[in-house]
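TOPIC: backbone geometry
CONTENTS: sequence, C-alpha cells:
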Amino acid sequence: MNDSHPQVSIIIPTYNSSRTLRATLESVVNQEFPDFEVRVVGDGCTDESAAVVRSLADNRIFWENRPENWGGPSLPRREALARARGDLIAYLGHDDLWFPWHLSGLVACLQEHDADFAFSLGMLIGQNGVLGSFSLPEQVARSLSIVSPSNWLHRKELLSTIGGWSPSLRYACDIDFLARLQAAAMSTVFHRRLSVLKYPAAEWRAYDQQAEPRQTRDLAAMKKDAEGLAGELLLDLAALVSRQKTYRSRSRVPLFIRVALARMVEIWGPHRWPLSAILRRRHRNRAGLGA
C-alpha cells in the first residue's frame, strides 16, 4: 500500500451510531483488499464515535466531526470526498457490514470491465432476519427499489462528469446521485456476489434497545465462517421469495399513496438523522415487525 495514495477511499458518514460503528469498521479492517483509507465523518456526533475510531488504532482510518448536525449523509460525504486520496471511491453505512471479499471483488470487476461504476448484491437484515435484497435499479427515477451506496464502487473522476453529492438534499440524496449517473450514461457493471449486509436505518431505535446489536452477532459469524453465513442468508432469501413475502411486497398500501407519503416526507424533511419515527413505523409495518 502507498500511504500517500491508497487505491480506494472509503467514505462513512455517521451520526451517533457508536454501538454499530465499531462492527462496521471491523468489517472494513477485515477486508481481503488492504490498499484503502477510511474517511469517517461525524455529522455533529455527541456520542462515543470518536473513541470507537481511536480504539481500532489503524492509521488507515481518519476521523472528523462536523461542529453541527446537518441532518443527512450528503454533506458529510462531500467533506470526506474533499480529502479522499484514492482513485476509487466506496461508501459504507455506519450500521452496515461488508463481507471480506467486498472490496477485492468490486475492484477486480471494475477493472476487468473498464467500467466507471460497479455494484454488488446486498442483503437487507432486520431484527428477525432477512427482509429482502438489493442491487441497483435499472431506472432509479421510476423505481421504488431500495437504494444504498454501501454496495457501490466508482472511479473518483466520475464526479467531474456527474457532479458530487448534493449540498442541499437531506433526503433521497442517494437517488439523486444515481439519477445523474444514469442520465450521463456512465458505464456500470454488476459484481454477481453477495457482499453487503444492510440494516435499514428505520430500525435504528431497536439497536439501542438491545444489549448486543444484530450487527455484532453477524460480524462474529462472518469472522468465523463468512462463506457459511452468506450461504445461509441466501437460502433464507430464497425461502422468503418462495413464500412471496419479499420486503417490498409486504406493504398493503397502494403505490400512489406510498409515493405521496414519500413526497410529503421529502417536503417536511426529517430534522434529525437517522430517519424519523414516522419512517421507522412505516418500515416496521412493511417488514411485518409491528409498531
Summary: Residues 8-242 form a domain with the Spore Coat Polysaccharide Biosynthesis Protein SpsA; Chain A fold (CATH 3.90.550.10). The beta strands are 8-14, 36-42, 61-65, 88-91, 97-98, 117-126, 129-134, 152-155, 188-198. Residues 270-276 have pLDDT under 50 and may be disordered. The longest strand covers residues 188-198.
